[in-house]
Specification:
This protein is mostly helical and 501 residues long. It has one domain. Helices cover 73% and strands 1% of the residues. It has a two-stranded antiparallel ribbon. Helix 11 packs antiparallel against helix 12. The radius of gyration is 23 Å and the shape is globular.
């Protein structure tokens, strides 16, 4: 009941004309950005971080949340029409959605995706309202050893499920942790990795790192692989669903959030895994044989899953200060830009902001459904923007944003050096998310580790002095040992299979 009254207060904050305007701007930007391949909500929020310095914090986060949810909605459009996911969470949608479009059922696929996103976001946000205060009240009693263990779990889990190999994931994490070390040590005042530069004594701003790795790195990568010939978008009619499609989609819409929300709340790399699980589940439960040739269930389930996972991500970020996706990592940087520390005390110290943000998610979800259904043909036209103009504009805004951070030319140099690093990471298959999480959580993890060691007079046992930390380290050990155990199990099964043969 307390959460309900706080949510009503949040609606009184979110329904002001100014905040409604920023919610609308956020969902429209997010949808447009989700439609355009290769950009994504993480890059959009990173580009807007410098622009929002002068905005009130609640308005800025309402806009960021709108971009996050809008990116989930818009990413399905290009996946269905061009077989090119605009957002990584829409990869699975492309499997059946594009085949539906080629069969002349693109309008139905877009409608199933839009309504699925609405249902998933609505259910996920309700779960956020119910669970976030509970998690926050539990997290108040978590000490330094527990926080450090949680951060180690975030590091290991994210690097274990992203990229082509674990080695590349850990290499990306190491890059992020190294960048996070640049500057003066908070406890000793000793300079670290500053190369004698006074400008680097304060460290490298997270905004510059995020914009460099996402926007500049992606733009350089696209430029290096740009092809002059572009596929022609498939014509789109007005999205609609008949009774037959509704009978086939309502169950996948409800099943999706059951997978998406819990997976979004744990650090396993975002919506990619639960959307795939949703697709497999719907394929097994389907009574028809359309899977592989354009089954609408293969669009409805994964899209509802993706939106619900975004709500789960916000639970972990707001209550524990742990980002589980790239967009959440950039939003965490935005919180720090405003001098706000996400965590268990956020619901007490910044109650108006948090509940206004949560209330705006309901408003943004409704706006997205209203905007996406009738305007799907308009969004499809964005795909005709020539790639050179699109990414040239992104580089321009990235440079302006980086210069606005400190007003110094060296910030631009750092931006493009980090952008080249982001290009190299893509070239060699290193995922970007572990690096961003390393930059943001690395200094905090170091601080929590030092606090735990101070409490134990330098004894390493202090890092596992609580039951919560011990359980988390057991989970970490299981994550690290599972690939080796899987190989041993396969090696034992092979001889038996040969004997049976």
């Amino acid at each position: 009941m307390d959460s309900f009254s706080l949510l009503l207060d949040g609606f009184s904050t979110a329904l002001t004309p100014q905040h409604l305007l920023f919610a609308a701007i956020g969902v429209i930007l997010g949808t447009a950005i989700g439609v355009l391949p290769g950009i994504g909500p993480a890059m959009a929020v990173a580009l807007l971080l410098p622009v929002t310095y002068g905005l009130e914090s609640t308005a800025a986060f309402i806009m960021f949340a709108g971009i996050y949810y809008g990116g989930m909605f818009g990413g399905s459009t290009t996946a269905i029409l061009l077989n090119t996911p605009g957002e990584s969470a829409s990869v699975v949608t492309a499997i059946e959605g594009n085949r539906m479009a080629k069969r002349g059922r693109g309008a139905q696929a877009l409608a199933a995706a839009a309504i699925g996103n609405f249902v998933g976001a609505l259910i996920g946000t309700i779960a956020l309202v119910l669970l976030a205060p509970v998690v926050a009240s539990f997290a108040v009693d978590i000490g330094a050893p527990d926080y450090f263990a949680l951060m180690v779990l975030a590091f290991i889990a994210v690097t274990s499920v992203l990229g082509r190999s674990r080695v590349r994931g850990f290499a990306s994490l190491l890059i992020g942790l190294t960048i996070g070390l640049v500057g003066l040590d908070d406890m000793t005042g000793q300079s670290r990795l500053t190369l004698g530069s006074l400008h680097l004594a304060d460290g490298i701003d997270v905004v510059i790192v995020a914009v460099g790795l996402f926007a500049v790195g992606e733009s350089l990568w696209v430029a290096a692989h740009l092809r002059h010939k572009q596929d022609k978008p498939i014509p789109v009619g007005r999205p609609w669903l008949g009774r037959a499609e509704l009978r086939r989609t309502w169950k996948p819409w409800l099943r999706g959030p059951l997978l998406g929300f819990p997976f979004g709340a744990i650090p396993v790399g975002g919506a990619e895994i639960p959307t795939f699980l949703s697709y497999v589940t719907e394929k097994r439960l389907a009574r028809n044989r359309e899977f592989g040739s354009g089954a609408i269930e293969g669009v409805a389930g994964p899209e509802a899953t993706a939106s619900a996972s975004a709500s789960g991500t916000l639970v972990t970020m707001l209550t524990l200060g742990l980002p589980t996706t790239a967009t959440a990592a950039v939003m965490l940087a935005a919180f720090r830009q405003y001098g706000i520390q996400p965590g268990p005390l956020l619901f007490e110290h910044e109650s108006a902001l948090v509940w206004g943000l949560i209330a705006s998610l309901f408003i943004g979800t409704a706006l997205l459904l209203v905007i996406n259904l009738p305007l799907a043909p308009v969004w499809a036209k964005l795909l005709r923007i020539p790639r050179p103009y699109l990414y040239a504009g992104i580089l321009f805004f990235a440079a302006v944003g980086a210069y606005a951070v400190g007003g110094e030319v060296i910030d631009l140099l750092l931006l493009f050096v980090i952008g080249l690093l982001g290009f190299a990471m893509r070239r060699y298959g290193l995922p970007v998310l572990p690096a961003i999480i390393g930059v943001i959580l690395g200094p905090a993890a170091e601080q929590q580790m030092r606090r735990a060691l101070q409490l134990s007079d330098g004894d390493l046992i202090g890092l596992v002095s609580s039951p919560i930390a011990a359980v988390i380290y057991l989970i970490v050990a299981a994550l690290l040992a599972w690939p080796l155990l899987r190989k041993l199990i396969r090696a034992r099964r092979q001889p038996g299979d040969r004997v049976d043969a």
